[in-house]
Amino acid sequence: MSARLTERFPLQALSRLHPECEMLFQLEQEERSCLRFIEEQSNGSAEGCRPFWEAVVCWPPADVGETVHRPCPAFFSPFRNSTGSVSRNCTSAGWSRTSPPYHIACSVDDDAPETERSFFATVKLIYTIGYSVSLVLLAVAVSILLLFRRLRCARNFIHIQLFVTFILKAVAVFVKDAALFSSDDTNHCTLSTFACKASVVFCHYCVMANFFWLLVEALYLNSLLVSSFCHARRCVWGFSLLGWGVPVLFISVWIASRLYFEDTECWDINEDSPYWWIIKGPIVASIAVNFMLFMNIIRILVQKLNPRLIQFNNSSQYRRLAKSTLLLIPLFGTHYMLFNFLPDYINVNLRLCIELCIGSFQGLFVAILYCFLNQEVQKEIHVQWLRWQERSYGVVSPAAKGSQMDTPF
């Protein structure tokens, strides 16, 4: 493993390794040095205890009756800040057991890795269920909006694009998990295949596109309330360019930066990487703009819902728009405002729960509120059901004679 790591990462790139990978590399360097030392001592005296490498500590040769003390390995420093030491006695029968054991001398909790593994397994199970359920309902929602011709409008076109980004995001998470976590034996410090990097790039693009289409939704809602320019079809092309094209630009710059300046590991570890802000920066900016837009929406709706200013012909439209908008505010990244301006290492477990567990159900909630609870969708499905009954059984219902969308939004 030492040779593979050294060949894959040139010395000038080692300083840019993730801290855990750098720690493993240093451990392998110590192991290689110890094995060279043992080889040099192979022609020495056969008396006493021979030197050997014990996974994390190199034990030097010793005479019978001698006690050798070694400080706690630096490998344990990320787990506990300990300055303890371990020792072994050289006896006529060979080396004695380590005293005290590593987990006692170096204050390493034996149960910590198992507890951490259980936590991550639980998180993975929750977000797998969330993305799976969201994927199915989002696919149904997209099919409904595409199937019924009367539901085809600029507003639903934007909704469909948002649904597609949630679908792609779920697929990207599954693809990334398959590429990176298909085996417990996968070494992320040496894994650097094209398929692995492609899965990471695809995942980042889908996440970024999702945030930008959330921004498009906010822009569209603002334009509906502020002016009427959004009814022109040319705005749909502009929104499409913003939602799908802008992420391509930033992802391309990030790929070039990783290739030329930080081509290490599988590109999945971005902690302390300055190039990560090429992706994270626009996402954080979109979240901030989204939040301000929704605050502006609330301000406008409060003004328009003033009983003295509401006109009879548009009062129901504004009330319904206000209801749907206020319900959707928590779904448009407001919770991300809590973490995106903090360093990545702060509240890691809480961040994972919110971004992965809760975030995996975000598409499900959006599909329910935008499609399944939408009165126009329910009405159109009901009308189509009545028409099917008419064709099948000859039953004619007044509600099946026509259906029109009762709001331009």
From TrEMBL:
Keyword Disulfide bond: yes
Domain of life: Eukaryota
InterPro entries named in the record: GPCR_2, GPCR_2-like_7TM, GPCR_2_extracell_dom_sf, GPCR_2_extracellular_dom, GPCR_2_GHRH_rcpt, GPCR_2_secretin-like, GPCR_2_secretin-like_CS
GO biological process: adenylate cyclase-activating G protein-coupled receptor signaling pathway; cell surface receptor signaling pathway; positive regulation of cell population proliferation; positive regulation of multicellular organism growth; response to insulin
Major localization listed first in the record, in broad terms: membrane
SUPFAM superfamilies linked: Family A G protein-coupled receptor-like, Hormone receptor domain
Transmembrane segments: 125-148, 160-179, 199-223, 235-255, 275-301, 321-342, 348-373
Keyword Glycoprotein appears in the UniProt entry: yes
Ranges where the G-protein coupled receptors family 2 profile domain occurs: 33-110, 123-374
Membrane topology: Multi-pass membrane protein
Record key words, sorted: Cell membrane, Disulfide bond, G-protein coupled receptor, Glycoprotein, Membrane, Receptor, Signal, Transducer, Transmembrane, Transmembrane helix
Signal peptide (UniProt feature, chain positions): none
Gene Ontology cellular-component terms listed: plasma membrane
Subcellular compartments: Cell membrane
Family annotation (Gene3D superfamilies): GPCR, family 2, extracellular hormone receptor domain, Rhodopsin 7-helix transmembrane proteins
Function (record text): Receptor for GRF, coupled to G proteins which activate adenylyl cyclase. Stimulates somatotroph cell growth, growth hormone gene transcription and growth hormone secretion.
Annotated family: Belongs to the G-protein coupled receptor 2 family.
Protein name per UniProt: Growth hormone-releasing hormone receptor
